[in-house]
Write a structure and sequence with these properties.
A hairpin with a 5-residue loop joins β50 and β51. Strands 1, 5, 8, 11 and 12 form a 5-stranded antiparallel β-sheet that branches. Strands 2, 3, 4, 9 and 10 form a 5-stranded antiparallel β-sheet that branches. This protein has a 3-stranded antiparallel β-sheet with strand order 15-16-17, with no helix packed on it. The protein is an alpha+beta fold and 723 residues long. It has 10 helices and 55 strands. Among the domains are: 173 residues, Immunoglobulin-like (Sandwich); 64 residues, Laminin (Ribbon). One of its GO terms (molecular function) is Notch binding. It is a single-pass type I membrane protein. It is found in: Apical cell membrane; Membrane. Keywords: Developmental protein, Differentiation, Disulfide bond, EGF-like domain, Glycoprotein, Membrane, Notch signaling pathway, Repeat, Signal, Transmembrane, Transmembrane helix, Ubl conjugation. This is Delta-like protein.
């Protein structure tokens, strides 16, 4: 049982190692010969039941380990080990591939998970077993023969043959080391698995190098080879043969930059530029600046450069100057030739032709004296102390030898197109019209005579003037008034007529208004003429005083009529209004009582002072305290009259009246009436005498007594105060 477990573990470990291996050591057992059937100790193998004597049932233990100079058969087997099942009896041959026992396959494989070192030590033991199930290798009594060797081995497909003989046994075997799939190199250390996906597009060479598929490049063949000619910086591709441009570039090969949007006549070296071509300018190169090409302003072979819209500069060749290089530089202007030498202008240079007796570049060297008579035209000669001579020329001549006649007009002294007249020893300028002065450089003021009329402003020109006219005038001298019909004020097909300083619109049929701008109802046949100016002028006449006065008078009459109506209405209302009740005014001013309304009755109701609020103390205090009490009656005659008038003295009537009017004439704020019977009044004097002692008086300390009197003839309610 233990042997089976060991075999299973060996197989599992071999499989696991094969999974992670980089190569495999293969051992092929080909033939084993044991003619006598003896063990290693020369004992005869015990055969099983029915077997001949000395029949060795042979199985093998293989141990593969690292290289050892002296091979030790003892474990550990660093590279791997294997135990075979019983493969035969005594002598037998082993075919390739799987045998009768499925647990054994020839050759025996030892997978490597690391680089093959190139050397190894191999131990092969032939063992005998009595039972196929007992494959233990620890018992030395079972050993038939042992092979222990070390070898050098290179990686390859070829088998290395070997034969081991021990005198009694022979073992023929072969071995090799091959790399696993996708492993290459001398030690099977180079891994290369062909692939064609996002992680690479390659196959593997004989030594494990990556060979890119057509159209791919790079270390792992992940970079596609773009279209031939595609710019490496500005183009890219996702598939072989493509050429996709990066932002800002275009073209089949992505070598053309994209110009600034809207750029018309410009180029670019980098994206979004707009470098204008010659003759164009502006942000979008849409402004034609090619003045040089179109007009060719520069002369004498000068180089023209555009500097802006419609502007340019000329780079002149040597010997020329001016805005357009139209002027040749006269190197003879400073008169470099001396002693009367004649100067000849050359291109960017000059040459001097010397008179007789002088030589040198500028004729500065003299070979004559006054004895030679060098002065012409009557010139006076004088010798110079330093050598040479000088001539004093008469009027009209010049030059070192007085050989030149003076040309006063040669320097063009006259300006503004004037003609120069040579007078011999002087010159005269004949000026063009509009100029004056010795050299005709003064412009004549043409505005001096004030030619502009009607307040126009004059501007002087060259032999001319111009007038800026005020509003309403036109013409060269502002003398012509502007036509009123000039701006077509009439609408809808009307005809404009000018009349003095105004215009009149002759409207077409169906239109009206000052300018014929309104559509009118149908009118009788005939044109309608509307003169707006006449209406406006009519408004400027005398003020209409008559109309204004008539309007003012009409308004005053209306106001007077309204006032009379108001007065009449108020008079009627006063006549219809009933007489005023004295009680109301008196009660409001004297006792501050509410309205007292009652029917006609002849009775006298005497109300106690404690029941009615009396505020007339102030009147007494303001008056004279020593005056008679009747003075107060004179102030209130109605009260006095009612007190002495004939009254019915029926006590019962008084009681009834008192009780009946008690609810109507009771002042606000009174708590109730006195229940005592009032005294019967039979006369005015008696009343006056007895009133202070009346039962209605509840307080003797009060100085004033209030009396409620009902008139007999009038519907009045009066509050009187008795003093």
């Amino acid at each position: 049982m233990g042997g089976r477990c060991a075999l299973a573990l060996a197989v599992v470990s071999a499989l696991l190692c094969q999974v992670w291996s980089s190569g495999v050591f293969e051992l092929k057992l080909q033939e084993f010969v044991n003619k006598k059937g003896l063990l290693g100790n020369r004992n005869c193998c015990r055969g099983g039941a029915g077997a001949p004597p000395c029949a060795c049932r042979t199985f093998f233990r293989v141990c593969l380990k690292h290289y050892q100079a002296s091979v030790s058969p003892e474990p550990p087997c660093t590279y791997g080990s294997a135990v075979t099942p019983v493969l035969g009896v005594d002598s037998f041959s082993l075919p390739d591939g799987a045998g009768a026992d499925p647990a054994f396959s020839n050759p025996i494989r030892f997978p490597f998970g690391f680089t093959w070192p190139g050397t190894f030590s191999l131990i092969i033991e032939a063992l005998h077993t009595d039972s196929p199930d007992d494959l233990a290798t620890e018992n030395p009594e079972r050993l038939i023969s042992r092979l222990a060797t070390q070898r050098h081995l290179t990686v390859g497909e070829e088998w290395s043959q070997d034969l081991h003989s021990s005198g009694r046994t022979d073992l023929k075997y072969s071995y090799r080391f091959v790399c696993d799939e996708h492993y290459y190199g001398e030690g099977c250390s180079v891994f290369c698995r062909p692939r064609d996906d996002a992680f690479g597009h390659f196959t593997c060479g004989e030594r494990g190098e990556k060979v890119c598929n057509p159209g791919w490049k790079g270390l792992y063949c992940t970079e596609p080879i773009c279209l031939p000619g595609c710019d490496e910086q500005h183009g890219f591709c996702d598939r072989p043969g493509d050429c996709k441009c990066r932002v800002g570039w275009q073209g089949r090969y992505c070598d053309e930059c994209i110009r600034y949007p809207g750029c018309l006549h410009g180029t670019c070296q980098q994206p979004w530029q707009c470098n204008c071509q010659e003759g164009w300018g502006g942000l979008f190169c849409n402004q034609d600046l090619n003045y040089c090409t179109h007009h060719k302003p520069c002369k004498n072979g000068a180089t023209c450069t555009n500097t802006g819209q419609g502007s340019y500069t000329c780079s002149c060749r040597p010997g020329y100057t001016g805005a357009t290089c139209e002027l040749g530089i006269d190197e003879c202007d400073p008169s470099p030739c001396k002693n009367g030498g004649s100067c000849t202008d050359l291109e960017n240079s000059y040459s001097c032709t010397c008179p007789p007796g002088f030589y040198g570049k500028i004729c500065e060297l003299s070979a004559m004296t006054c004895a030679d008579g060098p002065c012409f035209n009557g010139g006076r000669c004088s010798d110079s102390p330093d050598g040479g001579y000088s001539c004093r020329c008469p009027a009209g001549y010049s030059g070192f030898n007085c050989e030149k006649k003076v040309d006063y007009c040669g320097s063009s002294p006259c300006a503004n197109g004037a003609k120069c007249v040579d007078l011999g020893d002087a010159y005269l300028c004949r000026c063009q019209v509009g100029f004056s002065g010795r050299h005709c450089d003064d412009n004549v003021d043409d505005c001096a005579s004030s030619p502009c009329a009607n307040g126009g402003t004059c501007r002087d020109g060259v032999n001319d003037f111009s007038c800026t006219c005020p509003p309403g005038y036109t013409g060269r001298n502002c003398s012509a008034p502007v036509s009123r019909c000039e701006h077509a004020p009439c609408h809808n097909g009307a005809t404009c007529h000018e009349r003095g300083h105004r215009y009149v619109c002759e409207c077409a049929r169906g239109y009206g208004g000052p300018n014929c701008q309104f559509l009118l109802p149908e009118l009788p046949p005939g044109p309608a003429v509307v003169d707006l100016t006449e209406k406006l002028e009519g408004q400027g006449g005398p003020f209409p005083w008559v109309a204004v006065c008539a309007g003012v008078i009409l308004v005053l009459m209306l106001l007077l009529g309204c006032a009379a109506m108001v007065v009449c209405i108020r008079l009627r209302l006063q006549k219809r209004r009933p007489p005023a009740e004295p009680c109301r005014g008196e009660t409001e001013t004297m006792n501050n009582l509410a309205n007292c309304q009652r029917e006609k009755d002849i009775s006298v109701s005497v109300i106690g002072a404690t029941q009615i609020k009396n505020t007339n103390k102030k009147a007494d205090l303001h008056g004279d305290h020593g005056a008679d009490k009747n003075g107060f009656k004179a102030r209130y005659p109605v009260v006095d009259y009612n007190l002495v008038q004939d009254l019915k003295g029926d006590e019962a009537a008084v009681r009834d009246v008192h009780s009946k009017r008690d609810t109507k004439c009771q002042p606000q704020g009174s708590s109730g009436e006195e229940k005592g019977n009032p005294s019967t009044l039979r006369g005015g004097e008696a009343s006056e005498r007895k009133r202070p002692d009346s039962a209605c008086s509840t307080s003797k300390d009060t100085k004033y007594q209030s009396v409620y009197v009902i008139s007999e003839e009038k519907d009045e309610c009066v509050i009187a105060t008795e003093v």
